[in-house]
Amino acid sequence: MLYIKSFTFNPFQENTYLAYDDLGSAVLIDPGCHTVGERKDLEDFVISKELKVLHLLNTHCHIDHVLGNAWAKKRFGIPLWIHEKEIPVLKSVEVYAPNYGFQGYESSEADYFLTEGQEFKVGEELLKVLFVPGHAPGHVVFYHEKSKQCIAGDTLFRGSIGRTDLTGGNHALLLEKIKTQLFSLPAETVIYSGHGPETKIAFEKIYNPFVGERAIQ
Question: Of the candidates 10, 55, 66, 161, which lies 20 to 30 Å from 140 by C-alpha distance?
Fold first, then answer.
């Protein structure tokens, strides 16, 4: 079975996720932890569950999702995986981080690259990598078919979608990819977003004002 634990970190109220199986194998996704206290909260959970964190994954590389990358790589001794199109996005964070008040931001580099359709192993469980650009050029999501759970980053939110006015954003592309990639998942699929509460595909297909059946045309 795949378990998903969420934490809400940093001033952007970003959702960080730990996905782990019954044997305690885990992957850390989008670590937004920046303060000592936030990092301790994540670390304490890992210790309490006796988890073995094996990999670090980024859905995309905007600042709020990568603040804890360098710390996590060193603390758990794990490699970082991103989509290759996110390389410039990740590199740019060190340039603008001070403008957001993150004077102590430590940059990180990817060790491996995620590819569309890749199946990423979490112990005995598999996460499928879906390519859903639009919010960011190399944005991916992680789908667990067996439990119908999807860690979706900043693609789809409860009643909203990811912003597309940042560098590399593409509104029309995001709408298209949500409809073709995410809305093709089973209706009962739970969406764990990069911000805010979880939602379900069934709800968003009807009520989402951007991509749902009742969307304003």
Answer: 10
Can you spell out the DSSP letters for 5-36? EEEEETTTTEEEEEEE-TT-EEEEE-----SH
Low-confidence spans in the chain with pLDDT less than 70 = 216-217
Question: Of all helices (H) and strands (E), which one includes residue 56?
Answer: strand 52-57
Tell me the whole-structure pTM to 2 decimals: 0.97
Give SS3 for 197: coil
Angle between helix 36-48 and 69-76 (nearest 10): 40
The residue type of 61 is C
CATH code given to domain 3-207: 3.60.15.10
Output the pLDDT for position 214. Answer: 75
CA–CA dist 23, 35 (Å, integer): 29
